[in-house]
Amino acid sequence: MSRQTRVRWVVGVLAITGLVLVFLFQRFDVAGTIGVEGNTWKFLVNRSIRFVVNDILAIGLIYALFAERKYVLFAVAVQVFGMVFVLLPYFILKYHYPAYNGPLISFLHRLVLNPTLILLLIPAFYYQRNQMINKQ
User: Fold this and answer.
1) d(CA 135, CA 15)
2) pLDDT in tens, 61-118
3) Contact criterion met (CB below 8 Å) for 112 and 51
4) Worst-scoring range by mean pLDDT, 9-23, 48-62, 104-118?
5) Most CB atoms within 10 A, among 35, 45, 48, 59?
6) Torsion of CA 41, 44, 50, 51, to 10 degrees
């Protein structure tokens, strides 16, 4: 087994383990542990940390599966897109309408708490890679 293959295996195992641990400890108050005060700030910090950690672990999984720079860079671009167009609107809605729990906030909540956008890339990358192989 080559060194690169071993690194990919280790990154893959760490990414999957990390995603499972983030899910199991989702109720853990990271913001309170690091000294953040106030319910609003705790909410913002906890959600932001979970969003970023989930997506970084999912990007690690993409690296482990495909080991191609273009896929990792695209996944990072999707994460930045998610931060701007999913995380920020979620925070704005939760801050200005804290009692609102309709379908829009529910949808954004799922995207923020789960690495959905990044994990959707795995089947897309797999399909694209297979299409490129079939064309050759």
Assistant:
1) 31
2) 999 999 999 999 999 999 999 899 888 988 998 888 888 777 777 777 777 778 887 8
3) yes
4) 104-118
5) 59
6) -160
* Domain spans of the chain, in order of start: 3-135
Q: Supply 30's token pair.
A: 């990271």
DSSP 19-73: HHHHHHTTT--HHHHTT--SHHHHHHHHHHHHHHHHHHHHHHHHHHHH--HHHHH
Q: Which two tokens stand for residue 117?
A: 């956008």
Confirm if 75 and 59 have CB atoms less than 8 A apart: yes
- Output the six-digit token pair for 67: 């080991």
pTM of the complete model: 0.87
Taking the C-alpha atoms of residue 117 and residue 75, their distance in angstroms, rounded to an integer, is 9
Length of the chain, in residues: 136
d(CA 123, CA 73): 16
CA 127 to CA 45: how far, in whole Å? 36
